[in-house]
Amino acid sequence: MRVLVTGGAGYIGSVATAMLLERGFDVTVLDDCSTGHRDAVAGAAKFVEGSVLSTDSVALALTGCSAVFHFAAKSLVGESVEKPDLYFDVNVNGTRNLLDQMSKAKISKLVFSSTAATYGEPEVIPITEEANTKPTSPYGTTKLAVDKMITEEAKSGLAAISLRYFNVAGAYKSKAGWLAERHNPETHLIPNLLRSTRDKPIKIFGNDWPTKDGTCIRDYIHVVDLIDAHILALENLASGQHKIINLGSGGGYSVTEVVSAASKVLGRDIPTEIASRRSGDPAVLIADISLAAQCLNWAPKRGIENMVRDTWESQNASTSK
Ligand code: UFG
Predict the structure, then answer these.
(1) What's the domain count of the chain?
(2) What is the CATH number of the domain that holds 263?
(3) Contact 315/180 with Cβ under 8 angstroms?
(4) Which residue, 188, 199, 274, 286, is most buried by CB atoms nearer than 10 A?
């Protein structure tokens, strides 16, 4: 079976591409390389350089495919507040174009990369898929709009699963080398705290949150566990059905606990400095992952130290190149 991976040159898409190939799938990648990296795409994948907004590129990329993993999107909460139009265009119009071209090509299997940002500030922890969806950023709003679009599309036969990611971290050692986060600028906690120095300590965004140690709590999931769930989702698609499923670990770590875990892996202190709260951050995000267990027979296998270690090794491998 050939799978189209949109956004396959990005962090999560490149790991999906490599893991699909290693499990015997054929893969076509569609990516405009606006934030992704051409050299992250496994050599065995067919590569189409183009945007999800281009009808011709999407149609070409879909040739010979039976299913789609749709990762291509703008995905920074902060940037979405500054450039909402860009987010609506790429995320919503891009997906509309993809769905139209899939329908034309009679391809009816879709696994979509959704996000915990669709829920907004949670009223109850852990967050189930039944929770209210009140996104607090244009990013979350666009992903929620796409989830709703997919629900409508399933009424005419699409088989779809939206996977709502919590905090994805870690790296994957593919046959060709490490695939890891290479965002520019990098805003995520784990890759940044590993670069922390005495001159430039990692900033902890607030220590006055209503949590046990005053720092924000997040639910971190290893990118390999995340892609395992995508492959299980692909195998569990049902015609005319759209399921929405959370992917996290089901537990939370405060920023201070992540720093301690990293310190343990590195065997040294990580310099930190307390900074003011970052706007848009909720205090606590933890997923209820019972639906993923029930529908996909999936459970995460890799913990926070594994995520830190893999990120660390991938950063060392890339700087020693
Ligand atoms: N943090 C710091 N210092 C930093 C970076 C982050 O203290 O330098 C804190 C943040 O305030 C937050 C936690 O570390 O409490 C995690 O922050 P990240 O930037 O790593 O991730 P986010 O929680 O902001 O967002 C991620 C994805 C979103 C997704 C969300 C879902 O980037 O796309 O997880 O939980 F919606």
Answers:
(1) 2
(2) 3.90.25.10
(3) yes
(4) 286
**pLDDT tens digits, residue range 139-149?**
999 999 999 99
> If you measure from the C-alpha of residue 220 to the centroid of ligand 1, how many angstroms do you get, rounded to a whole number?
10
Q: Is 163 a member of any domain?
A: yes
Q: How far apart are CA 177 and CA 321, in angstroms?
A: 11
Looking at this protein, which amino acid is placed at residue 193? L
Residue nearest to atom 26 of ligand 1 (CA): 167
Ligand 1 site residues, Cβ closer than 6 angstroms: 75, 77, 115-117, 166-167, 187-189, 192, 202-205, 216, 218, 255, 278, 281, 285
Q: Which domain holds residue 285?
A: 172-218+251-290+303-316
Residues 114 and 184 in one domain: no
Is 296 a domain residue? no
Ligand 1, atom 15: nearest CA belongs to which residue?
A: 216
Residue closest by Cα to atom 36 of ligand 1: 117
pLDDT per position as a tens digit, 155-172: 999 999 999 999 999 999
Does the predicted TM-score (pTM) go above 0.90? yes
E strands, the chain, are: 2-6, 26-31, 46-49, 67-70, 109-115, 159-165, 167-169, 172-174, 177-179, 202-205, 217-218, 220-222, 242-247, 253-254, 272-275
- 12, 200, 278, best to mutate for ligand 1 pocket (most atoms within 8 Å of CB): 278
Residue of 296, 125, 162 whose CA lies nearest to 225: 296
Find the mean pLDDT for residues 226-254. 98
- Which residue's CA lies nearest to atom 4 of ligand 1? 189
At 240, the amino acid letter reads: G
Active site residues: 139
Which pairs count as long-range contacts for 81-84, CB under 8 Å and 24+ apart, including other chains? Answer: 81/137, 81/138, 81/280, 84/138
